[in-house]
Amino acid sequence: MGVGAMPVSSDGVENGSGLDGIRVLIAGDLEDGQATEGMARSFEGWVRAGGTLIGFGTQGLDTLFGNRYVSTTHQVDDFCPSGYFDLRPHSLTSGVHSYLHPGQRLLIFSEIRNVSPVDSVEISRLYGSNGRDASRPAITTREHGSGMACYFAFDVPKTVWILHQGRPIAADYDGDGMYRTSDKVVIGANDPEVLYADEILFLLQNMMAKTKQPFVYQVPPAGVTIPDALFHWGGDDEGRAGSQLFSSNWMKSRGLPFHINLMPNSDGQFALTTEEARAIEANGHELSLHINLFLKGHRHPLDFDESDINPQAEAFRRRFDRHPVCANYHCTLWTDWAKPAEWMLASGIAADNSHVHVASPPSNPINLLGFSFGTSYPYRLYSDHTGENKRIDFLILPITAYETGYTRDGYTTDFPLVRKVVDIAVRYHLIMDMFYHPVCIQDYPACRDAIDQVLSCIKENGVAVRHMGNDELCIWWKERSESVVSDFREEGGGIFFTAECGYPDGMIVKVPLGKARALAASCDGSDAVFQNREEFGQNWVFVISRRGRHRMRVTVGQ
């Protein structure tokens, strides 16, 4: 989301000291009895004074949220939806839900703590796992004094976790004959073009924005330009000689970055020569590993292990004198739950680009846009209970736009899908994976025409897109997660904050302004590039902060 977080102790809440300087607090899934009367009084006074309190199935604070507890709906299976919800017209839901599929409801993967509104406003309706109207709210909001209390009837972190990570692969669930990331997908027959997890984050952003909370924008600046979206370009060479340099040269001719995953053959050798590798690097492009799990003659479905990963990572290092950064598995193979990510990390690999955009079938789903893991943004996996559910320092770059813009049926172009990809990326400021195989760029003029059409569409729409390779995206995303916006205050028509970022190009901070607009911006007293935008139901200012630590000011007016 681009905001930092810190824990607040129950003692700090009870005596009020833990709430000093905090504008937004997430109470989480407190159980009955954990929220004492003293804590409830502190929360009430803090919200009345202007704080925003957000609860996820929180017990013990129903009066503050403006609700009355009714019952609990238990989840039958962790990896099956326990319910659905829609978003009702409200300033908090403005601009959040899919314009492509407005009738598609969002998904819940947790217990549901059902409530009845008393003096709250329902902004989301709850539906049962059978799709029937539960006649209860899924999300409510209550304005109290100068602040606001928002209640989700379900466990948001668990829901997002299940959407991102999917279910453990213990069988070939989709029946395609292989254990693949498509077997992890939990959205079922619901539309894959909907951002199930991201829409929840957009809604939380709108709730936090009521306090003018600054956010680190998900896209870095492009010089002095504030981009509308980020596209990262890459694909797998399938072990075929000649395709890598051809595709690299062609992508360079379009001014585009490119990331090529190299697959070893049955002898463990790579089709790319060291001379070709140097030429590709001279083009400014990236090389990494395409893990081939067919080398040992595995029969599918297969259950591979760490011994299949490290030898190929070592072979890549010996051949090209570098560590693979973002790699992936041939045919998007996967097993277990998070183990393949842990094995890649143990082999020196930092990220994976194997999580598919749509479920199987089809086995090779070209010319499709999808967010089957609920998001377009990089995310991290968590270990299972044997690892105490710890977060793994390893990124997943989900596949989203896979060979889009042309078909294999006569190899004709499909430019309407290209426009859809660009439009949704720009509308929500997505990080879009533009996945094109080098062999397809070499073999199919329609593939090259599709990529050209992406660039034409960007130009015709007058939007700005930051382009990079997968490895560079990993660097940016980790730097973004370590960036800090602090010391926020409003004073005399100005908004002041400190921005700290280690990414070479700096970062963009976005600040919600309500109905106001930014008139000027400065970085350490010098003019800073800024842009006013109207989105998600209010005005925002986007301002560029250079690398390092800087004191920022935004001058605000009507």
Describe what you observe in this structure.
- With 558 residues, this protein is an alpha/beta fold.
- The chain folds into 3 domains: 193 residues, Class I glutamine amidotransferase (GATase) domain (Rossmann fold, 3-Layer(aba) Sandwich); 256 residues, TIM Barrel, CATH 3.20.20; 75 residues, Immunoglobulin-like.
- It contains 13 helices and 29 strands.
- Strands 11, 12, 13, 14, 15, 16, 17, 18, 19, 20 and 21 form an 11-stranded mixed beta sheet that branches. Strands 1-2-9-8-7-4-5 form a 7-stranded mixed beta sheet, sandwiched between helices. Strands 22-23-29-25-26 form a 5-stranded antiparallel beta sheet.
- A hairpin with a 2-residue loop joins strand 8 and strand 9.
- Helix 6 packs parallel to helix 7 and helix 10 crosses helix 12.
- The mean pLDDT is 95.
First-last Cα distance? 27 Å
Q: Name the overall outline.
A: globular
- Major sheet size, sense and barrel closure: 11 strands, mixed
Average pLDDT value?
A: 95
The first-level CATH class name of the largest domain:
Alpha Beta
What is the CATH homologous superfamily assignment of the largest domain? Glycoside hydrolase/deacetylase
- The radius of gyration over CA amounts to 24 Å
